[in-house]
Amino acid sequence: MKGSAFELREDLLDPSSGKHYEGAFTQGNSYLQLRGSFEEGLACAPQNEKYWRLPANVTLEKQRSPRSKCGTYVPGIMGSHPLLNEEVVNLPNPLIFRVSCSLEALDMDLCEIKDYSRVLNLRNGVLARRFIWKTNSGAALECSYERFASRARKNLIVQKMTYKCIEGKAELRFLNDIDENVTTNGYSHFASNQKTPCDNGALVTVETDKKEKVWLETRAFGERLRFSEGTANISLAPGEEITVIKISGIMTSRDTDALLGPEQLSHLIKEAGSDYAALKAENDLAWEKLWENSGVEIEGDEEAQLALNFSVYHLLRGACENDDRVAICAKGFAGEAYFGHFFWDTEVYLLPFFLYTNPRVAKNLVSFRVNTLKGAMENARRYGCRGARYPWESSVSGTEQCPNWQYADHEIHITADVVYGLWHYYEATGDFEFIAKAAPVFVETARYWFDRVEFRSDGEVHLNGVMGPDEYTCLSSDNAYTNAMVRHSLEKTLELLSLLKERKPDSIKDLNIDEAFRSKALEIIQKIPVPVTSDGVIIQCREFAQMEDPRFDLTWPDRSKCFGTQVPQEKLYRVKALKQADALMLPFLFPKNYSAEEVKKNLAYYLPYTTHDSSLSYIIHAILLARCQKAEEGFELMRKALKIDLSDYHGGASEGIHIANCGGIWQAVVLGFAGFTPGEEKPVFHPNLPRNWNALRFHIVYRGQKYQVEITPSSVNVTPND
Ligand code: BGC
User: Fold this and answer.
1) Atom of ligand 1 nearest to the CA of 471
2) Given a cut of 60, is residue 1 above it in pLDDT?
3) Which CATH number fits domain 372-531: 1.50.10.10, 3.40.50.720, 1.10.1530.10, 3.40.190.10?
4) 0.90 exceeded by the pTM?
């Protein structure tokens, strides 16, 4: 693959796209995550701003837009917000390194900056910034910054700053610091916050309002530099340069390491030393191993290649490799929108990438739902039902965290999506031990459905008052997607019970299954309606036909903005305007149940009503089009998905990465255009490549075996790897 396909570049210093690049340049090592902010901060963007963030409708919400929003996250460290519920806490910023030249502080907005560029190397997660600073004192400096969250040492962040005097005499002063005065969505989650400067840096200890302790430490090193209370001075004559290495660390009371605390963190920092090249080499090696399994080469399409690499990079950085107590939040831990919550995105959009490239991480994601069963059972009780009801928006406990009633109360398909994810994991890996352990999730969610569906006196079974994936239809009856997912989840529950009976009979006893359980499950399976018109179009919900035509020609004049921002919410709820794929999620998730002709009919019916206001939308349609031999049309939609985080149109990555779309892009390539069809003994491919793709090369792991795959317009080669 060409180097440029691994380089995300920013060549223009434009304050209006600053937040977008901060999101897009997010670095992480699966344990800690850092937005791509400047080391020295920006005077016009204080990070301690306090305000009330309201839980407005997610589509219409207006984000605060300061020039920059620094972000430091350790997934799992959640705070408690009076309006937003639990949210991921923005931790003190350990990246801070300030520099001034004859008392003029470096500030990318206020100073004279030339030849600016920033490049994120997607292959190893290193972010590099270069520019020339023409100072007021007459000195000019060539500045270069590099940094990474070490993939080899999970607690550590490594930074290198070089200043070369190219004109005049530079009187420099450095401050190595941690900014502890930060807020999350305008709110401070720190019950206590203590900073102690040390000779070459600082130590910060915070305790969150959920009683988690977080320790941060930073140390700076540089030949000829003598730091005191974090500061050091140096004069540079023309041609002279100085390099500073900054090593910082984060550790939390939630970590599972045997020894935890500030001394242990100090020890890790000391142990790392300050040899930048050596630390970078071990980081690069760790990333190289990840790319070996996860990289996909698209020959003939640089735009798609870059977007795919960008997506894979963020998936690899965002997933917790060694923690099954968290999933991946909707913004990929790259911003504070959606408050660090976990959605159905995990099972439907993100899981497949991990399942077929790194099943160990996939296991963490599915285990997260097993580990949060208790919370889901508490939810069910809150809603007056037995069993387990998974939250539309989950945090670490599994209780509902969605601050908006519409979604929290009605988007109950999540409970069936969770079971879909568990079964998908089992089918792709054959991991019987895991699925046996997950059995209580199947059984308890089934019990929830027994209470939630309506068994009518006339013998019919219905599921009313739900919101399907299309969040522009607020309350609907017999949403086809939800009903089909409930049916699937009960079918798999019965299948699992038979499996357990055969292979692990002792485990059945604890599940308290009786004949009534089986017959209720069967009754729902047989009777829950998933109606289809005589033309073969899946009926989204019973109300759909009666809803008003949205008349997009009149109501949506400015197509550069989301439809949802141009009409009142009550209108969204009563017209046939879809936010994203709804009924079409069924052929996407169950490709074998729908013929190409049926898929085409459903696309022809629903696409004209679909606004794609959700970033989860384009990619599903692209995949379906690819699967029914309309690769070029599918590719047109995929191109829109490729731009979601790569351009700052609609805000781009300002508030975080649209990580579900990243998982969707990988799926579009492998499960869409390459036509990977899981479910058989060996991996099977029915490719349908866009015209300009000359070849696809990638690895997949299927049922414990790794395969090397090469697809060209005229051939498919699948070779088992050792
Ligand atoms: C979408 C949901 C999605 C959520 C988080 C919403 O805008 O409608 O389907 O789960 O974003 O990504």
Assistant:
1) 8
2) no
3) 1.50.10.10
4) yes
